[in-house]
Amino acid sequence: MTAPWINNIGARYVVDPEFFCRHLDFAPANGNSNSFSIPALPSSSGHLIELPIITIGKRMASPDAPRADKINELRSQGSSALAAHHHQISKLAFSKMNLGDSMVRNFHIFDEIHFAIEQRISICMQPTKKAKKGDRTSQTFTLLAWLDSGSDFPNLTSHPWSVGRSRSYFLPVIRHKSMVALKCHLFTDPSSNGEESNGDQIQSLSRLPHDYGRSLRPSIMAKDPFYTIIEIFNFAASSQVQFLNLIDAQLDVHTSGPTSQDFESLGYLKYIKHMLYGHLQKTKHVLESIKNAQLPTWPKDDSNSEKAAAAAHNVEQDFQYILDRTISLHTRTTESISVLMSSMSISESQRAITQAERVGKLTLLAFIFVPLSFTTSFFGMNVQQIEGKNLGIWWWIAMSVPIVGLVFALYFIDISALWGRVRGHFRYYIGLGT
Questions:
Q1: The whole model's pTM is what?
Q2: Residue among 48, 67, 44 at smallest CA distance from 113
Q3: Is the Cβ–Cβ distance between 137 and 299 less than 8 Å?
Q4: I want to staple 3 with a disulfide (CB 3.0 to 4.6 A). Which of 93, 222, 325, 418 is the partner?
């Protein structure tokens, strides 16, 4: 990915520069170079599509219970590494990245074992020949797809998403297709071209171009651009469903844990909620792109309209399901946060009640020992009346018992109410006398 490469591709296929601008938008939100023009309006994105691809990774961590401080440290390291990665990409001409290097849009850490990287496929549909009036089948077009994935990530300690370090690896994106398991002999081995690569380090997105279009009809692909990219949509939907399944499983763990871990779960749920909100907005943009592809500006194959329409309907149905699932998980997370905060408030109230009971016991002990301390200090005074007489212990007991009894009487009797009744009777008798 270099500036001359972008210039050559754009000039060769007459690509809208906005396509490159949006794909390379890595400016930080608090940076001086951010103009906040992206996301753009749907009307200006009729020929552009952005599909988020999420790859799940796993690390071989210890089976002990995850520590919140360790997870927070991993997230902090990941955030710093991601910011440095985006800064390097944004320099473009002065970047040290080579052509074909992979890019990462976002990096999520769930626990010490599971993490996920977010990448993107940007698609541009560029008409090359105008169709005759009322005939969309004669229009030719160019489709340009730009994938964030390329070569495997290097095993650098500065890249926490790099596999091969800490015994980590990527999970494959599994796409379900009817009866495909019985036709596995028809598919070639992706590594049969002589290239050797470690399967644990492969991003599934980087294998997408291999044998692409095997399930599509070439005759329809030549006339219908949206049908041509159906497999890309299917791949993106499959990766996002795996991502949502992981979040669902993580929520089950953190919403059913012991109350002693409520405070740690609260921070985790806020992290998940922020993640789901971002995914929710991106899924809405994908659905808008699917609707834009049904507009007259996109060529269609009227001779095979039923098959192309069925494929488009299935894709829209899948992403509508992803949107509904994301909303459901976001709502579940919000409700879990509310329940957790209420539970924590109740726990704090219970602790306050317990503490008040302990303070009450200490107060009761003070009502016993303070009068005893007074009488003890009284008999210990160096005065002539006490020193000249041999007073026994019974004198101290005889004096202490009435004083302690008086103090307890004052403790259990409401003096203010008693004084109020006395004042009331006094005023009543004064009134009768006058």
A1: 0.77
A2: 67
A3: yes
A4: 93
